[in-house]
Here is the input.
Amino acid sequence: MIPDGTFNPAVKYHWNKGTVMMAPIVIQLDDDNCDGKVDERDIPEIVFSQFIGGQYNNNGTLHAISIVGGELVEKWSAHFDVDRINPGREIAGGDIDGVAGNELVVCTENNKVRALNAKGEALWTSAWAGGCIQPTLADLDGDGLAEVVIEGVVLDGATGATKFTLPGSSYSTAADLDLDGKLDVVHARGAFTGAGAVMAQTGVDGTFPAVADLDLDGKPEVAVISNNGATLKHHLVIWRYNPDLPNKVEIVRPGININGPLNPSLCPVGSAGNTRGGGPPTIADFNGDGTPDVAVAGGIGYAVFDGKKLMDPNVPAAETLLWIKQTKDCSSAATGSSVFDFDGDGSAEVVYSDEHYLRIYKGSTGDVLWQTCNTTGTLREFPLVADVDNDGRADIVAVSNNYSSITCEATKQTGVRIYGDAKGQWVRTRRIWNQHAYHVTNVNEDGSIPAVQQPDGRWWD
Here is the structure.
């Protein structure tokens, strides 16, 4: 199949039984083909949390659905009366106990972490962790067993016991910053070793990190979005580990305004999107030049920055912008996005949903290739790309909700919708997307967490 370059997404499946405002995960939970093991040959499950009546931080229910025989099937749901699920927080999935098969990790209302088995049954609940928003799974010590990284704490995956704390950290990912073959815990304002020792401190504002080799020199940089920092309210910062400098940090870009030429007044005064903005950055080759670029959604626009220009000190900050398109996320101003080369032409497309529309942008220019109404009050959620029905073609999984006053063309949407190309032209992809901080080397397709996480040669996250 050689795609003809057109985009004709159509709804393949729709779970319409509730409101969702978090990023689902795609993970194999059961043995669909009856070969005695759970692996990438099975049909994956889509797992997400539902909330009721606008209470998106309270009393959540976890759902696992799957596509069986061309039909959407509800596998199970899980609800707890004690240490209840926080439905506005993210979840993670993978093998966390070293026993074949996958488990799930969710955040509770009272900032604990709860683990569930593949059937949705409780396994363990951690002690109060101080904060749980975006769990990340990684094998930090390379012993073949995964750890659970949350805001400020690392937990043992098998038991939920606290292994060590990470003072001053927030949203984190795992990457090998110093190229010693071991994973480090990377957050926006610095990094810790996989054993919890302070490794780097930036001294600048930051919220969401992503890791990439932006100049292709074999050494990673950290792209950071500062959303409502003390001095940087809606800015992109680039830094990298340098053991020869104070605090072992080199600031490549101290702060680029992600709003570009757009006026913050596109969001009402007093709203989040007016005063701050910027969700988790996404890194990919948007313009097909062979080097990674950095993209971010803010309160008033979706912006892509040219990776080559970001790393060139002779290029002024304003000129690093590849393109920006006006959007509207005045409520949280912190949603994420996904990228995927649907037509296999070497240039990634962007999949992004603001408060009103789900859109696909052409990566090189920002031209809107397709859009549809997709209302959401927004937190940190994003649409994701995976082959959820094992048909050998990529699908888009997007969530929506109708609890707020937000409308799109006088309509509201809700639930979880799965889109595929009406002509069946989209290229194949993996059958897994296991966490909010997903990247293709952080998890194997069967859900096992690699003891040694390999960079892909150009970018890490």
Notes: Residues 457-461 have pLDDT under 50 and may be disordered. The radius of gyration is 20 Å. Residues 272-275 form the longest helix (4 residues).
